[in-house]
Amino acid sequence: QPPAMRDGGKDKGKGAARKQQGQVRPGPNTTTMMLRNIPNKYTQPMLLSELNTQGFWGTYDFFYLPIDFQNRCNVGYAFVNFKTADDAMRFKKKFDQQQLPAYS
Length: 104
Prior knowledge:
By secondary structure, this protein is an alpha+beta fold. It has helices at residues 44-56, 85-95, and strands at 5-7, 18-20, 23-25, 32-36, 60-64, 67-68, 73-74, 77-82.
């Protein structure tokens, strides 16, 4: 399944994430994104490498990929906070409905 994008709802002013036709639509100041449907064998270094090679190096200040330590794999989603809303929207355009290359 391709990763699905969902904004994290972090909004520094008016215009918070809005629902439209069953999907969450980021507001103009949204900087946090959720990447879903990540193949569970992806590691933090692998996913960060993918972000960086896609042109996002230096554009984010927070990254969280939860790990299930009992099963030694990620749980299928990650949060990324970007320094600017423009970078967050660029990320959304790049990764929305796209498959990650490894394990797809």
